[in-house]
Specification:
single chain; alpha/beta; 10 helices; Rossmann fold; 9 strands; 3-stranded antiparallel β-sheet
């Protein structure tokens, strides 16, 4: 079985490094890509859109499917939930299952930026600033642990923050419409993080109403980044989901 991991805003593919060895030890092949415009794959932020993101995912996935002859599982964290949704709508034949990890889910009625603005999360609004002249959103320096990693030790936090980059704004501006015939045809699961301070649990559960999830699994006490703070538990949850769906 092959899994393709899609990171969230500000991050890059390195965020999965503690989780993937645990899955690979169970015989799961893990693939992680860095989205265009993020650290290690730099690009002018004004040229980065959700279409650019989703095309990068589809190109990567198509290459894996051609090599293996099998559909793959697509996992999206946070903003990555939007990316995998658009990719699933674009090329549904590539994917056997989508797993959303404390992820944003596209609404037919609102843009992601609208969702963020309307979400009852004062902490996010205080810790994230927009620079429209540079076309990016930035997390205020020193606030990363409080927002994303409050269950992680400082060594892990510092390593991850070193991989951060300003987040291009454009992917958050457009509505991302999807159809039941394409994205809706792919089985989906949602993994909740109950102590998330970036995407609050009430927001996660509200977003889940935007589409049908076969299974919703909760990780108790988890911050926004269980792949760093609780990789063993997250691996156990994912293996359980994949055993059922394989």
């Amino acid at each position: 079985m092959n899994i393709l991991f899609v990171h969230g805003a500000w991050h890059n593919a390195g965020c999965w490094s503690k989780l993937t060895p645990l899955l690979e030890s169970s015989g799961i092949s893990c693939h992680c890509l860095t989205l265009p415009g993020h650290k290690g794959r730099e690009q002018n932020p004004f040229s980065v859109s959700m279409k650019v993101y989703s095309q990068a995912v589809c190109d990567y996935a198509e290459d894996i499917v051609k090599k293996t002859g099998e559909q793959l599982v697509l996992v999206g964290h946070s903003m990555g939930g939007l990316v995998i949704s658009v990719a699933g709508e674009q090329m549904p034949h590539l994917f056997k299952r989508l797993i959303y990890l404390s992820a944003l889910v596209p609404s037919q009625a609102s843009s992601p930026l609208d969702i963020m603005k309307n979400a009852p999360n004062p902490a996010m609004r205080k810790m994230v600033s927009m620079n429209i002249f540079k076309g990016v959103m930035e997390v205020k320096k020193g606030k990363e642990k409080e927002l994303f990693y409050h269950n992680c030790d400082d060594v892990v936090v510092n390593e991850e923050v070193n991989n951060h980059c300003p987040q291009p704004i454009r992917p958050f501006l457009a509505r991302h419409r999807w159809s039941h015939e394409r994205l809706g045809s792919i089985p989906k699961d949602y993994i909740e993080c109950l102590d998330d301070r970036a995407v609050l649990i009430d927001v996660q559960r509200h977003l889940q109403k935007s589409m049908t999830f076969e299974r919703v699994v909760s990780i108790a006490g988890s911050d926004h980044s269980p792949f760093l703070s609780q990789p063993e538990e997250l691996a156990s949850v994912m293996i359980s989901l994949l055993d059922v769906s394989s």
